[in-house]
Amino acid sequence: MKHLIKIIILSASLLAGEKTWSSHSAEILEQGRWEIGLFQPLRYGYSNYAEFSIHPGWFFLIPNLEIKESQKSLFGYKTASQYRLTYPTMLLNMLSGDGIGKVIAPEHEIPHMFSFSGSLIGTRSFKDTKLSLNGGLDIGIVLGDLNPISTIDLPLVYHRLGVFYNGWGFHTGIDIERAISGKFEILFDLDLIALPGYDGNYSMENKILLSWNKSRNFRVTTGYKFISGEFPYGKDSRLLPYVPILERWIPIVELQWARNKK
Asked: Does the predicted model carry a pTM greater than 0.70?
């Protein structure tokens, strides 16, 4: 059960990843269109200039909301601002205690915490290739006492929660999407999470995803995610998803569905 909890936490963060199937770019979903995946959030085109997204399967454990708004073009790049608000306290307290499935010691009660991230995304198209650059600031707000040794020292989780212990951090990344043949396209993604002054102050993440777009309303994605960074126990690298029970890596498999408002 403990291994299963870890897999769920990691899977929810793995794919966080054109107006269609383009959450990494500055493109905004067309008005009335929605997209959702097994691990991807539900994205909804509120207007031609703004979209909303939430993780519906996690919303009642980790309330979350993301807004992306179109902005003026700069230096040939289409731009958008993105804002994300997350409240992880309920899930973290569920994972605190003794016994199977608990990953936080019982003496640690997690206070009310909110994270806010603001990003600027720039996207430019070159024939069959789309380049997106992003960067932004992360703020962790803690309403109470948070024990500094209550961290979850797992790749992909440690640095995302680190903003609450450090108070702030920043992130930046590059995404390259390219149509390669017929209905197939490939995504290369490289991201940096930095927490200056923190014990384990950076994480580099890379993923390559191959997608088969059956139509505008369904696609299948597979690939990997690689993470390398500093942790309290030293530097570490991991290829994900990793299944502890099998002691091996398995490919990401993601299914996504979409519909347009008629």
From this structure: yes
Tokens at 44, concatenated: 């909804």
Q: How far apart are CA 121 and CA 177, in angstroms?
A: 14
DSSP conformational letter for 104: B
Q: In 85-229, where does DSSP find H-type helix?
A: 89-94, 158-166
195-238 tens-digit pLDDT:
999 999 999 999 999 999 999 999 999 999 999 999 999 999 99
Does residue 258 register a pLDDT over 70? yes
Report how far apart, in Å, the C-alpha atoms of 120 and of each of 2, 23, 41, 195 are. 37, 13, 19, 19
Residues 6+ apart with CB under 8 A from 215: none
- What is the second-level CATH architecture of the domain 2-259? Beta Barrel (2.40)
Report strand pairing: 234-240 vs 218-231. Answer: antiparallel
Give, in degrees to the nearest 5, the angle at Cα 28 between 25 and 29: 115
What are the E-state strand segments in the chain? 34-37, 42-45, 50-54, 64-74, 77-86, 112-126, 129-143, 168-181, 184-194, 202-215, 218-231, 234-240, 242-243, 248-249, 252-259
Domain layout of the chain by residue ranges? 2-259
How many CB atoms lie under 10 A from the CB of residue 143?
10
CB 159 within 8 A of CB 151: no
* Amino acid (1-letter code) at residue 72: K
- Return d(Cα 199, Cα 210) in angstroms, integer: 35
Average pLDDT in the 69-92 region? 96
